[in-house]
Amino acid sequence: MDLDNVAVLVEAVQAGSLAAAARRLSITPMAASRRLTALEDELGSRLVHRTTRALSLTPEGEAFLPHAQAMLEHEADARDALRPSSAGASGLLRITASAPFGRKVVAPMIPAFLEANPALRVDLLMTDSIVDIVAEGIDVAIRIAQLRDNTLIARRLGDNPRWLYATPDYVARHGAPKRMAELAAHECLSVTGTSHWPFIDKAGKLVHQRVTGRFSANSLEAVHEACLGGFGITKLSGWNADPDVDAGRLIRLPLEDADIEPMGIWAVYPSARLVPAKVRAFIAALSERV
């Protein structure tokens, strides 16, 4: 199958018209039309309904499009494997990260990363849900969790220390807990479904402290905002809360008898075999940042 013909289909769908696809591919509109026709002839199916200004996929086109995208991605990965490291990465890099980490850490580094890799495009999916990276076609997922160090599917990028935080106003009104047990007397702001917070006591033992509060949310950013509103105590990663601490909006609340269970920042990808250059380049750049 001629991948030049496949590229016309993919670009036309992304750009919305054959004319726009032709501009992206630096060919004439007539050449783009001929390539698409050749692809349809080879497959024996009409893939798009097209006019001079727009197009829409047929059911057959919708079924074929994911395979077309995968073919182009595989070609790009194969070329990347042979490119000198100084040439930079290319193709489309799909990343997923939690909303807070994506907004505060990943997104700010993307402009410089793309400038260093001018042939690369990035699609960032920010969600607090765990994404099936294989099913969703994700190249790399950034997860903050307790994962075993399995180099076949993941790479630990760094530590992710977490702390308890509250506003100065909350501490003035309710005081600051000094020990784990004292959290029972406070409004603890948690992610939906959380009833205990994990701590490591001074003996190095994992302890799950029960916490309660009148507010929870399925979004860590919502919990963070409630904490900034002075409603209670929550636990946040240092990279997430440090700007608020520096600005005097939040206070870190250390405990005498325990620390919050530490986590790591991990880059997770489908396979360690033939990792694309674009994934290696992104992981290297993110490692430097964290």
Structure write-up:
This protein has a 5-stranded mixed β-sheet with strand order 4-3-5-15-6. It has a 3-stranded antiparallel β-sheet with strand order 12-7-13. By secondary structure, it is α+β, with helices and mostly antiparallel strands. The mean pLDDT is 88. It folds into 3 domains: 3-82, Arc Repressor Mutant, subunit A; 86-160 and 265-289, D-Maltodextrin-Binding Protein, domain 2; 162-261, D-Maltodextrin-Binding Protein, domain 2, CATH 3.40.190.290. The protein starts with a helix and ends with a helix. The protein has 9 helices and 15 strands. The protein has helices at 3-15, 18-25, 29-43, 59-82, 99-116, 168-174, 220-228, 238-246, 277-289; strands spanning 48-50, 55-57, 90-97, 119-126, 140-145, 154-160, 162-166, 190-191, 196-201, 206-210, 216-217, 234-237, 251-252, 258-260, 263-268. Helices cover 40% and strands 24% of the residues. Helix 1 (3-15) crosses helix 3 (29-43) and helix 2 (18-25) crosses helix 3 (29-43).
**What is the terminal separation in angstroms?**
43 Å
CATH superfamily of the largest domain: Periplasmic binding protein-like II
CATH top level of the largest domain is Alpha Beta
Q: Assembly type of the shown chains?
A: single chain
Number of domains: 3
Helix content: 40-55%
Rough shape?
elongated
* CATH architectural category of the largest domain: 3-Layer(aba) Sandwich
Can you count the beta strands? 15
Largest sheet: 5 strands, mixed
The CATH topology annotation of the largest domain reads as D-Maltodextrin-Binding Protein, domain 2
Q: What are the secondary-structure elements, in order, as H or E?
A: HHHEEHEHEEEEHEEEEHEHEEEH
Average pLDDT number? 88
**Fraction of residues in β-strands:** 15-25%
Helical/strand content category: alpha+beta
The radius of gyration computed from the alpha-carbon positions, rounded to a whole number of angstroms, is 25 Å
Count of helical regions: 9
Strand order of the largest sheet: 4-3-5-15-6
Poorly predicted segments: none
